[in-house]
Structure formats: structure tokens, C-alpha cells
């Protein structure tokens, strides 16, 4: 019998729990922080890291006073460990669809308060066709949603995209347009003939992704052009909470026009300039083509993509 190669010996002997501990360490600020997250004692975590480094023959984390960061080898291991951890997490989901193709669970992560008739129609058709399948939908910041799909912790994401992660696939679901709004107690509420210059210096609230280097860059540019106070007094990743702060009078803030149309009609919000060429944001469906899907996940994704492809582009632009 031929002897095992070094990679084969590593696959046979490596304790997979060490990789799980390493993933927590890689996202922690210190060994003590990682120990708290794992509900373990600090020496136990330090020992696990040392065993992993000894087994691999590489230093994985530079840990000195004031410094705790992955080495080049640690970064490479982190990328591989993410895939392994994601595959393990998905075992139960994959096996759930073995006996019956309409069983299985679909986990969708999405930006908050996505308003899309296409997505709603897909949910309805999916449940009609596969009543034994289950769904979970979790709202989170778009960047977190993309990370969840990349790490195979989610079936698909519906979110904003600033920079595309190469290993993921993308499909535009719809395009929405943003405007600036204020609430009933704001001094500009109800005023006709307001110009962009009138907004200068007023306090503002916005989304955490409203940054020049993030998904809502065009919205950040709109705020900058209005010369609102550079200090944002309130932020949230959740559209409902940004809306709440605007209505409560904390400041002027951006919201999708089609989402808050009823709020404007009922007097809860007042639209402010600019009125022409409002910034457009694309919302995408994102999935990981390298993730092994159960039958329910495959059915959900194919149903949504097919509906998008059969819907004219102009019917997927909301303003």
C-alpha cells in the first residue's frame, strides 16, 4: 500500500474544529475576544490556534501588543475555511431535499423593505408549486448579504451591489429612484418652490451604505450636492428605521420614491428637491454558482430568473 501524500495526511488528521475556531479568531480583535465569542477560556483558544499552526507549519495570525491580524498564510486559509464551513452548514439543507424534490429550505437575505412585484409573484408561485418547501427571509445590509451568499450561508441575496465579488452571479431585479424627504415637523415641510439651495446646512439622516465608496454612492452624491450638514445625525441599514427618523424630524433623508409614495400622499413625508433626474439604484439577485443547491433552492432561483427574463426592462424601473 502506497504511503499517503502530505495533503492526504492533512485531510485525514486535521481536526475540523480547529478550523471553526480559526474562523472566529480571524474575525475577532484578539484571542480574548474570540474566546468570549466561543464561550471558551482564553488558554483553550490559544492552544487550538497553536495546534493548527503546528499542524500546517505556518504562522496564521500576527499577535503582538496592539497588533492582531492574519498573515498571508492566514488569509489563504481563511478563504478555504469559509468554503469548508459553508459546505458543512449546508449539509442538512442539501439532504433535506433527497426524498422529495419539493422539500427543502431556502434562506434568502435581502436589503430592507425591497418592494418588487416580481419577487412577490415568485414567492407566490414557489409556494403554490412546492408547498412542502420552507423559506426564511432575513433583512440585512447589502454588504452583509453578499458575504452570506459568498460564504454559502444563504441561498440567494436580493440587495444593492457596489463592487461585484467575482465568484458570484448577478441579475438585475429592478431599478429604483431615490429622492430626499422631510417629516411634518421639519421647517421645509409643505413649502412650495423649495430649491436645492434651501437644503444647505440642514441636518440629515441616511443609510449606513450612503457613502462614496459603498452601494448608495449616487445617493451620497445627491446629499453632497444639496450641501446638507456633513454630520449625519442618524443612520440605519433598515429602510423602515431611516423612514422613522425622517418622519420624527431628525433631518432630511433619502428614500426610494416608489416605496414611500403612499407616505407622501398621506402627508407623512414631504418630497424635496432635486426633482429632476433622481439617482437610480439597481437591486440585484445574487447567488453562488459554486454552492450545491437543494431542489427547493434551485426551483426558487430558476423561477425568479425566468420571471425577470420574461418581464420587459421598462416594467422593472420604479420611480
Automatic annotation (TrEMBL):
<dbReference type="InterPro" id="IPR005119">
    <property type="entry name" value="LysR_subst-bd"/>
</dbReference>
<dbReference type="Pfam" id="PF03466">
    <property type="entry name" value="LysR_substrate"/>
</dbReference>
<dbReference type="InterPro" id="IPR036390">
    <property type="entry name" value="WH_DNA-bd_sf"/>
</dbReference>
<keyword id="KW-0804">Transcription</keyword>
<dbReference type="InterPro" id="IPR036388">
    <property type="entry name" value="WH-like_DNA-bd_sf"/>
</dbReference>
<dbReference type="Pfam" id="PF00126">
    <property type="entry name" value="HTH_1"/>
</dbReference>
<protein>
    <submittedName>
        <fullName>LysR family transcriptional regulator</fullName>
    </submittedName>
</protein>
<keyword id="KW-0238">DNA-binding</keyword>
<comment type="similarity">
    <text>Belongs to the LysR transcriptional regulatory family.</text>
</comment>
<dbReference type="InterPro" id="IPR000847">
    <property type="entry name" value="LysR_HTH_N"/>
</dbReference>
<feature type="domain" description="HTH lysR-type">
    <location>
        <begin position="14"/>
        <end position="71"/>
    </location>
</feature>
<keyword id="KW-0805">Transcription regulation</keyword>
Amino acid at each position: 500500500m502506497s504511503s499517503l501524500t502530505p495533503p492526504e495526511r492533512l485531510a485525514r488528521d486535521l481536526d475540523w474544529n480547529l478550523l471553526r475556531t480559526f474562523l472566529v479568531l480571524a474575525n475577532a480583535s484578539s484571542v480574548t475576544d474570540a474566546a468570549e465569542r466561543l464561550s471558551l477560556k482564553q488558554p483553550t483558544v490559544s492552544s487550538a490556534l497553536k495546534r493548527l499552526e503546528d499542524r500546517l507549519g505556518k504562522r496564521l495570525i500576527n499577535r503582538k501588543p496592539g497588533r492582531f491580524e492574519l498573515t498571508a498564510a492566514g488569509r489563504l486559509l481563511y478563504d478555504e475555511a469559509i468554503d469548508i464551513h459553508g459546505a458543512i452548514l449546508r449539509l442538512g439543507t442539501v439532504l433535506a431535499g433527497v426524498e422529495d424534490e419539493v422539500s427543502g429550505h431556502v434562506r434568502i437575505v435581502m436589503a430592507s423593505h425591497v418592494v418588487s412585484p416580481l419577487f412577490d409573484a415568485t414567492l407566490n408561485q414557489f409556494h403554490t408549486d412546492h408547498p412542502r418547501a420552507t423559506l426564511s427571509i432575513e433583512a440585512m445590509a447589502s454588504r452583509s448579504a453578499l458575504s452570506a451568499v459568498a460564504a454559502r450561508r444563504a441561498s440567494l441575496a436580493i440587495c444593492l451591489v457596489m463592487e461585484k465579488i467575482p465568484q458570484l452571479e448577478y441579475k438585475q431585479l429592478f431599478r429604483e429612484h431615490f429622492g430626499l424627504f422631510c417629516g411634518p415637523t421639519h421647517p421645509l415641510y409643505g413649502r412650495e418652490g423649495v430649491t436645492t439651495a434651501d437644503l444647505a446646512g440642514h441636518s440629515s439622516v441616511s443609510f449606513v451604505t450612503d457613502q462614496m465608496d459603498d452601494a448608495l454612492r449616487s445617493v451620497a452624491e445627491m446629499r453632497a450636492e444639496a450641501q446638507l450638514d456633513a454630520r449625519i445625525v442618524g443612520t440605519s441599514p433598515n429602510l423602515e428605521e431611516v423612514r422613522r427618523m425622517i418622519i420624527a424630524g431628525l433631518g432630511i433623508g433619502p428614500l426610494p420614491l416608489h416605496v414611500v409614495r403612499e407616505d407622501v400622499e398621506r402627508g407623512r413625508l414631504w418630497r424635496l428637491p432635486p426633482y429632476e433626474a433622481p439617482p437610480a439604484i439597481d437591486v440585484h439577485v445574487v447567488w453562488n454558482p459554486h454552492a450545491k443547491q437543494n431542489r427547493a433552492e434551485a426551483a426558487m432561483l430558476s423561477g425568479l430568473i425566468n420571471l425577470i427574463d420574461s418581464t420587459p426592462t421598462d416594467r422593472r424601473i420604479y420611480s
